[in-house]
Amino acid sequence: MAKNFYITTPIYYPSAKPHMGHAYSSIIADFFARFKRMDGFNVHFLTGTDEHGLKIQRAAEKKGVKTLEFCDELSKTFKDLSKTLNLTNNDFIRTTEDRHKKSVQFLWNELKKNGEIYLSKYSGWYSVSDEAFYNDDEIEDLDNKKVAISSKSLVEWVDEESYFFKLSKWEKPLLKFYKDNPDFISPKSRKNEVISFVKSGLKDLSVSRKSFSWGIKVPHDDNHVIYVWLDALTNYMSALNYPRVDDELFKKFWPASVHLIGKDILRFHAIYWPAFLLAAKITPPKKVFGHGWILSNEEKMSKSKGNILDPIEIIDQYGLDPLRYYLIKEVSFGNDGNISQDKLEDCINSDLANNFGNLCQRVISFTIKNCSGKIPEKINFEKEDLDILNKYKENLSKIRLEIDNQNINFYIDYIINSLFEANKYFNDQEPWKKKDNPLRLNTIVYSTLEIVRKVSFLLYPIIPQSSLKALKIFNLNEKDIDFASIGDNTFLKQGNSINKINILFNKIEKKND
Ligand code: MSP
To answer: N or C, where is the chain less crowded by C-beta within 10 Å?
Structure first.
């Protein structure tokens, strides 16, 4: 079976600077991309910016700058953030690029050719903030204003000529598609809400706008721009050179393995997107995973609430890896999670500095003092060594399976537990009392070094910089990291010198300590 893996983040609206919610989606996607690469997959990891539509046009007008210039500037802040977050994305797509526009217009023509699009008139509610159409029963009054019940964002009444996509026709095929592809909507908890929405009846979807111009033109009708969600969703294929379906990238990576998204944009990904694709006779993605929100003061971040958390500020204060670790560990994946500086500091102090950092320093000092700084040569594993070492090998397939189910919490718990056991092993074996039994002392040191190597490999997708720093102990580099080798108990070359490394994580002095 071809080991190809294609993962995407949502493409972000460059209407304001990126915040922690955006950083979260991207870091999680990077975690999966790195894991799959270290497990021998060809990975394609895509992120980018979603630059059309009224939301962006109005944001640029408000600033008094040309829309494209506005997008250029803000899209760059997202691109820069990808570097700051140490993402390993293979591509960064902007929907204002020609490659994307061509792709969207081609898809439109396919839908038109297949009789899926017709011209009519839209009269109904529209939220610019969500770039979404809403039915009457999805609207409520809040402070004398009309808002969407789900997002509480303002809606306005729209009355204009519009092209429609025959979404209603896809109700049954979609239900069948969900049935035949039970993992398509993940986690499972999100599946029911989508299915019941579809079952409640789908109306045809307005897929063009006439009252503004910031978008991709409808082919053969310059008066209309294509609805921003039809435009945006296509990014996942335009980045693979669609419509060149014989192109190497498209052949290798479509259908996507997983679109990672926030739960607020599930309807677009789990209903509209597969419907567009089925209508264009293209295979839908294998999975759409809707993660929860990062809450700030128990609420979703938004400009209007003024509770935006800036990832750059946290990184400047604590460093990137602690933030990556914290987001991956503390937010139960799929659910909402409140970000708290206090818990972030706890993660740094207990998990990173104590459990991982100290273990590394202890075994380095011990090896330098007692084994001439070399990976011991004469060793003989005993039961207590094999008990701990073999566990890694025994758990490899389980870890792979859990990762394929996006069970990040399993993965991180596994690591935390391994570190706990590793520290316990070193303490219980008391190598400092074995100076008259060099074979035993050597074996304990070798085993502990092996465990440090294994855990550093496991930590690579979460805290790549720190993992690579730790691997310097053994002169190992990124290219040496291979998930399967975690099952090898004699990976480290005996007789090789080890290196001292600087402290991996500085402890934070907590105010209430
Ligand atoms: N442009 C659309 C996506 C198009 S994908 C074809 C969009 N952009 S967004 O910038 O508003 O949001 C991008 C992603 O960030 C969404 O998945 C959204 O759920 C996520 N987040 C926005 N705020 C968030 C939090 N506070 N927490 C976690 N993620 C959240 O929607």
So the answer is: N
